[in-house]
Design a protein that fits this description.
By secondary structure, the protein is of the alpha+beta class. The protein has helices at residues 23-34, 45-50, 72-81, 98-113, 123-129, 132-141, 156-166, 223-233, 289-313, 355-362, and strands spanning 14-18, 39-44, 62-65, 149-151, 169-175, 185-189, 194-205, 208-220, 238-242, 248-249, 252-261, 264-273, 285-286, 320-327, 333-339. The protein folds into three domains: 8-129, Rossmann fold (3-Layer(aba) Sandwich); 149-242, no CATH class; 246-339, 2-Layer Sandwich (D-amino Acid Aminotransferase, Chain A, domain 1). Helices cover 31% and strands 27% of the residues. The strands form three sheets. A six-stranded antiparallel beta sheet has the order 4-9-5-6-7-8. Strands 10, 11, 12, 13, 14 and 15 form a six-stranded antiparallel beta sheet that branches. It has a three-stranded parallel beta sheet with strand order 2-1-3.
Amino acid sequence: MSGASLPWANSARLGLIGNLENRRISGFRAAVEQCGGAVSACVAYEEILRDPGALSSLDADFLRIDSPGENDAVHRALIHLGGGPLLSHLEFGEIAWLREYHLGFCEVLRRIEQTGLPCLNAPADIAVMFDKWECHNRFVARGISRPAATLAPRSFTELHREMRARGNGRLFLKPLHGSSASGVCALRWTPLHRQLIAPISIVSEGGSTKLVNSLSVRTYTDLNDIECILDRLLPQGMISEQWIPKVTLPGGSADLRVLVIAGEARHWVVRQSQSPMTNLHLGNKRGDPAALLDQIGPEKLQKAFDLAVRAASCFPDSLYAGVDVLIDSHHRPFIGEINAFGDLLPGLLHRGESTYEAIARACRGPVCSA
């Protein structure tokens, strides 16, 4: 970490930026108070989007930037700020305008950076963590084990041509600027059959068709449905990523979410699923850590933790990050994703601290420069 030390003992004032109605804000504020500190100011994304000057009078010495998600008004405003239309309505969970949303969020991060206030996670780091291709290139450049990946074609016609040329295969297609498995597709095919697995619903109404996030993972085998989905996602930008066969435990395949704080692997959870997507919000379960340890052994598990720490170190101006680690059938670790807001792991303790308490206490050490 770089930057100045801001211990609570010196009465440093912590400001929070987020959606104020969200449990992330209330949960972190409570954790700060539990650790003997206080939050001096909270600024809502809605306020920043309505009035860029709202940040100028922020009564804080350093900032925690939280997720802009789970707020429809913020979602629409970020799309507009990023060059998209001024939407009066967006279907709940609709997968659209991903690039514009990302550009809008990057503009808000730039405004935060211009305050000159130190941030627990630097705005520039957060922007890169939300760009899967930039993350991939950064990891590869630093020798971090990653599934092989390329930029995907921009049309289903081109992708289908590549599929026919290969004959058979399997890969993940991931939006460049998505999160929480939004728009992520697992695709496999043979000369006679095609299958796309994704937490996506196709919604047709009023003569138009939309893609909407679904909490249930669905399997599509009809070529028209697959084309419908990918013809809407591919033009928004996707990466084509090698499908790593994950380690299997009783109850399904598994991977890890590891929260790295101040260069140390802290809280971790086994995410287990019967589908290729292990995200817990999709109804998947937390797996048994003891079962994973029995399966791969302590040395391989430690290698997974070490790799997560190395991945987080690629973002030296961020105090913490949630790192998704894939463990293949040969028990080798690979970095799947890194998430600037990957610390929402309710009920998970490490050394007697929740994730938010651990981050709040880590503020006693150095925090990054904005």
